TrEMBL record:
This is Trehalose-6-phosphate synthase. Belongs to the glycosyltransferase 20 family. Keywords: Glycosyltransferase, Transferase. It holds the Pfam family Glyco_transf_20. Probably involved in the osmoprotection via the biosynthesis of trehalose. Catalyzes the transfer of glucose from UDP-alpha-D-glucose (UDP-Glc) to D-glucose 6-phosphate (Glc-6-P) to form trehalose-6-phosphate. Acts with retention of the anomeric configuration of the UDP-sugar donor. Its EC number is 2.4.1.15. CDD domains: GT20_TPS. It comes from Fodinicurvata halophila. Pathway: Glycan biosynthesis; trehalose biosynthesis.
Length: 461
């Protein structure tokens, strides 16, 4: 088996990803790929230093983790230009159809290019002839070109975890051509959903003057490559057992007691403007307004840990949510009932699994999302004898697969409120039918299938 070299913005600490159910799905997938191929994981250490070390930091393989990690530090200027500036304030909004939020400065693009080039120059001496190189996500879009310029002939694959927006939206990025022409140096580009692939095809034919042939073969900027859909997933059975075990935990008991027989609705997201949280809060307000029988009977728990706190747009969305949650609770709360519990902290994965299992309805209503793993985790966490209902945005990549969820347009908050009402009153029989169809889908395309199919497709290019 060939060695796989994974390159991502961050290298997670091994302990974060060491146990099933204890780690995020992506970390598990990456670690399994690395273990199987005795691979190498390269990326940022997470440290920001005025004077970074000259050489990257290696960690040697161990018996439990038979792969290497190599990490580099960023300077404060690199962190602010490449990570906060270009990746999070320019690329992220555009990839999520929010060009209006882009804060463009050409200096940020130069820093982004410099950091990509620096990653590549530190990586190249570590490469072996038949390594497969697998680049992850929007932080590293200039790396394919740099790798080829450094003479690297290995197979290179790139997977985009976010959406690829429609060609017109992508073209609002002043550097759209540089970014896509760099990606075209890959042998394989992977997207989350057919919508993303279609948008990319459209970009290639209409913006780049390239061609799309049969078998997902592309030609553009003088290069030939493939682009395909690989919907990312989770380990459903691992997550299901974590949820089942967590049901007997202290936190689960506390949650059950505090609900006092009320139905629980849940939302779990990083606090990000792409996740549709204000619209979700409004849909809950609509539910209580329009269907007063839910007052005192339903509690909505929204878990939304802060993310990207240095980015101003995230401060704005935070204060908007604080305002809305205050208004909803002020309007509807009783001395013995708080309708909305809004928590800005992350939960341990096992605890999270238990909370999802205990929830009658999950609201996964992003305005745009590459996939959204919480949707799949919610399904996996359910009790097969009494499963809850998933209310899912049509704009999450997951909606392409999870067709038996109640699919909504999150911008229509009233309609989302109606879907929740339908979910709360759905018969056990219908809940079971929908759940088992959803669970079958997730089992068929789980995280192992995802990583193996990407690697197989890369080898086959
Ligand atoms: P994210 O935008 O971070 O990921 P998501 O797919 O939902 O979104 O993954 C988040 C992960 O973090 C999930 O496993 C979830 O359980 C966990 N998580 C979220 N909030 C948590 C909390 N409060 N406590 C504990 N755990 C929490 C990006 C893209 C997505 C894409 C993924 C994977 O934006 O579209 O699905 O990468 O490709």
């Amino acid at each position: 088996m060939r060695r796989t070299v994974i390159v991502s913005n961050r290298v997670a600490s091994i302990t974060e990803g060491s146990s099933k159910g204890g780690a995020g799905g992506l970390a598990v997938a990456i670690l399994e790929t690395l273990r199987e191929s005795k691979g190498l994981w390269f990326g940022w250490s997470g440290n920001v230093r005025e004077a970074p070390l000259d050489t990257p930091k290696h960690s040697a393989p161990t018996q439990a983790n038979p792969f290497e990690t190599v990490t580099v530090d960023l300077t404060p200027a690199e962190h602010s230009g490449y990570y906060n500036g270009y990746a999070n304030r320019i690329l992220w909004p555009v990839l999520h159809y929010r060009s209006d939020l882009m804060e463009y400065h050409s200096e940020h693009f130069r820093t982004y290019q410099r950091v990509n080039a620096n990653f590549v120059s530190q990586l190249v001496p570590l490469l072996k002839e038949d390594d497969l190189i697998w680049l992850h996500d929007y932080h590293l879009m200039m790396a394919p070109r740099d790798l080829r310029q450094a003479g690297v002939k290995n197979r290179i694959g790139f997977f985009l975890h976010t959406p690829f927006p429609s060609a017109d939206v992508f073209a609002t990025l002043p550097n759209h051509r540089e970014l896509v022409s760099s990606l075209c140096h890959c042998d394989l580009i992977g997207f989350q959903s057919p919508t993303d692939l279609r948008s990319f095809e459209d970009y290639i034919t209409h913006e780049a003057g390239g061609q799309v042939h049969a078998n997902e073969e592309f030609e553009a900027f003088g290069r030939q490559f493939r682009a395909q859909v690989f919907p990312i997933s989770i380990d459903p059975d691992g997550f299901a057992s974590a949820a089942e075990e967590s049901e007997r935990s202290d936190v689960a008991n506390r949650l059950r007691e505090s609900l006092d027989g009320r139905s629980l609705m849940v939302g779990v997201d990083r606090l990000d403007y792409s996740k549709g949280l204000p619209e979700r809060f409004l849909s809950f307000e609509h539910l209580l307004d329009r269907y007063p029988e839910n007052r005192q009977r339903v509690t909505f728990l929204q878990i939304a840990p802060y993310s990207r706190i240095d980015v101003p747009e995230y401060k704005l969305i935070r204060s908007r949510l604080e305002g809305l949650s205050g208004r909803i609770n002020g309007r509807f709360a009783e001395v013995d009932w708080t309708p909305l519990r809004y928590i800005n902290r992350g939960l341990a994965r096992r605890t999270l699994a238990g909370v999802l299992r205990h929830s009658r309805v999950a609201l996964v209503t992003p305005l745009r999302d590459g996939m959204n793993l919480v949707a799949k985790e919610y399904v996996a966490a359910q009790d097969p004898e009494d499963p809850g209902v998933l209310v899912l945005s049509r704009f999450a990549g997951a909606a392409h697969e999870l067709k038996e969820a109640l699919i909504v347009n999150p911008l229509d908050y009233e309609n989302t409120g109606e879907a929740v009402q339908r979910a709360l009153s759905m018969s056990l029989e219908e809940r079971k039918e929908r759940w088992s169809a959803l669970m079958d889908t997730i089992r068929q395309q789980d995280i192992t299938a995802w990583r193996r199919s990407f690697i197989a497709a890369l080898e086959a290019t």
